[in-house]
């Protein structure tokens, strides 16, 4: 294989491997030559070969497995969020909200019809902007906040990174990490720097190490971190803000996806003097994933650059969708229903965690739609046993940033929609899987 890979620069070598992959000469699972061997064959510096493989890994074309080498990635190597439809198994790893708890938009639809919006008019609905601005300014404690509307949180994060970064720039990600953030950073060609997460959110030492590594952006989940369910404590947030005070131009992106459903108070990394920030809140967890709308509260410069990133493509999110979101979010009955949904998720997760703990599998009650359960055995072994019992679980291996890291012992379980009988059966099967 060595003699068909060519090039003298990292870009040329990466392009050569990509071409071989496209022509079918390299197939998923094929091993690439070791870095030192490839460098010697091509007569280039070892760092050049390392850079080429890193570019390929960031583009999702290869998978680096540490001492196990580097292999060509396949189309199915990247895990995705959501329910699995082509299975007879009961999916307990989807991370979805309960559709029965999503408010019916029908009563609000009649209130949003108005004059059609034409080209050249303001792209943000004035009522939604004013409502969002009041909340963001109060929570962030600053007046220099601007509002942008995007087609969901993932869309916001992708465009926010694109307006601030160049290819191969470093981005701090929580580890374990939300799948969409892993994909966004990888496909954007950025370099992911893992920051460990504990019960109080991002660790201070982890953030310091990431800043020392030269990160230019941070993606942080202040509440209900996916997959662990951790929320930033006020004390931890204050420590992290103190660390970031010396780095005011590092872009902080907070993805507060669980906002109105959370049982925890919002604590932020964004300090009063920080220069580049974005607080992103989608409505998908409480108004439904199909709403495809997120509010991004940012500093003025980021808002201007984000607007430029929006202009070449989808210039604005439908005003009908914006009006519908505002009509529901300002409706007391809808807000009460959202509050009941948040309490339901918390109560069901707490009951399941208590049942597991009582049976010897210590499980911490956290925030969010799922539980992060540590098993005494490797997660893949537990998931295989559960599959034989009719369950489809998601292992923590999907959420690792480092492919070469030891295999995970965690399962992410979405159990809030199980009835009492099914919940009890799953507890029994988890206990059996742990032995």
TrEMBL record:
GO terms for molecular function: transaminase activity. Keywords: Aminotransferase, DNA-binding, Pyridoxal phosphate, Transcription, Transcription regulation, Transferase. It holds the Pfam family GntR. PROSITE patterns: HTH_GNTR (PS50949). Residues 7-75 form the HTH gntR-type domain. SMART domains: HTH_GNTR. It comes from the Bacteria. InterPro entries: Aminotransferase_I/II_large, HTH_trans_reg/aminotransferase, PyrdxlP-dep_Trfase, PyrdxlP-dep_Trfase_major, Tscrpt_reg_HTH_GntR, WH-like_DNA-bd_sf, WH_DNA-bd_sf. In the C-terminal section; belongs to the class-I pyridoxal-phosphate-dependent aminotransferase family. This is Aminotransferase class I/II-fold pyridoxal phosphate-dependent enzyme. It comes from Microbacterium istanbulense. The lineage of its organism: Bacteria, Bacillati, Actinomycetota, Actinomycetes, Micrococcales.
